[in-house]
Amino acid sequence: MLDQSPRFREIFFEVYESLPRQGPGNRACATRALALCDGLPIAPRILDLGCGLGGQTLHLVDLTDGHIVAVDSHAPFITHLAASVAANGLGHRITPLCADMAHTGFPPGSFDLIWSEGALYNLGLDAALPLCRDLLRPGGHLVFTDAVWRKSDVPEEVRRGFDQDSPAMGWTQDVLAAVARHGLDLLGHFTLPDAAWWEDFYTPMQARVREMRRKYAHDPEAQAILDSIHREAKLHAAHGDCYAYEFFVTRRPA
Question: What pTM was computed for the model?
Answer without folding.
Answer: 0.95
